[in-house]
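the two lines:
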Amino acid sequence: MIVLRSITKIYGTGKEALSGVTLGIPRGDFVFLVGGNGAGKSTLLKLLIRAEPATSGVLLVAGHDLTQLPEARIPTFRQQIGIVFQDIRLFSDKTIFENVAFSLQVSGAPRRVRTRDLVMEALELVGLTDYARRFPRQLSGGEQQRAAIARAIVRSPQILIADEPTANLPPDASWQIVQLLADINRRGVTTLVATHDRDVVDGLKRRVVELQAGRVVRDERYGSFGPTATQASSHQPVPTASSAFWPAVPHWAA
Amino acid sequence: MTAAITRFFEVVRYAVSTAAVNFWRHRAMSLAAVFAAAVMMLMLNGFVIVVSNLNVALGALEQKVNVIAYLRDDAPAAEVTRMQERLRANPLVAEVSYLTKDDAMARLKQQLADRRDLLEMVTGNPLPASVEVRLKDANRIADLAAQLRKESAVEDVTLQQDVVDNLLRITNFARVAGVVMVAGLIGITLFVIVNTIRLAVYARRQEIEIMKLVGATDWFIRWPFVLEGVICGLSGALLTSALVGAAYEPMQVQFLSLVQFLPVNLDADFPLRLAGLTAAVGIAIGAAGSYISVRRFLDV
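prediction for all of em together
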């Protein structure tokens, strides 16, 4: 579903944000992306949504070769993935319903009745059916983030990318958000979550990829926020089913 | 095909409703853009009115430019007739009028009605018959004079070359200057509108960024902004036309009483045509202003 092969990103300032990153994320996987500030997490996510082009390497996302993707095709590509932002980024002057429906309008809205059904389905999944007519400012931070998740999944994306979705949220709200993401993942959506939140990573025990100085330094199948004693010493990730999906890409070989 | 048509109408519906909603939600900025457009188009209207009046006046003066060919007394009547026919067929000529010797004398008597003493000094009729030719284009006066001089029936040709040259110099300059200044004013109007709308768009740059990130195409984002610009431009144009419409009649009366010697009578449709032009300029400038303003924020 997602393949990075020797991906390097050097910004115009000359800063090398990613250096030869190779990684494979098979369909249906759930991955936490961890690492300190400046490790390259944000850059990696920007590359995955084609907000930035890679400097070199091969980057395949949902069947699109992003290193070759023409500008005109970027919107179509983005319509196939769901994105959740750290700062939520709902339209403040639209209701929750309108915010979620916007995703459908962008990608060619189905008939209005169908739109309403899809939006309400998404809101039901995130537990916000009673908030459809409210504006974002009338919701708590956690509720706003759930609305943003509804917006991201209403188009039934193959991939969900979340950038620090629990930042600035209280622990209980954070946990609800992560549970929600895990629930969405169980429906077959490949999920990649960049986070600084130790509790959610340790609590969920899913695959953890750690970046340091633009390189993958850890890739554990059932990892925690910090390296476990044995895996930290060996840096050997547990093989996953990804090899069946991407046989040509040794995604744990980084 | 059906899906494409449905999609098209969905986008149109989205763009129109979003533009209307945004115009209302951001009404402070919308009003700023409307007033900026109105002020600039008011100046533009004023200028167009002045230039149009000037053009009418200068056109009327140009209409008075003519060439007089004095005929030989011994010119055969048939030759004079043929010459007139040739002149009427000439593409440079608007009007030909023949003045016989008697007509010339009658006109002189009329002009000197107060000076019978002078008329008494005139014996017989020394005045030649003449052909007065009015030109379609005053710029071609020298060409026509040259053609007339070649005519066998013509004794002499008079044209007030200096007067004509000066008049042409003034009218040509006024027209070119008018076009340049109207174009300049449209450019300035566009600049003001772009910057006003850019402020509005800048305030909504995050909105544009979100749209881009959730997969909106550039045109999907741009259409509502462009339509919003059109609403602003058109509202400004309507405001301008209402003000101009109210002020036009009394101001024209005032103006005509000041410059009675100039024939500055614009036709009755002029205010309507001006309003149409203003609306077209408003729509074009609003759309172009929004297009230009949004462009720089689309690079996400």
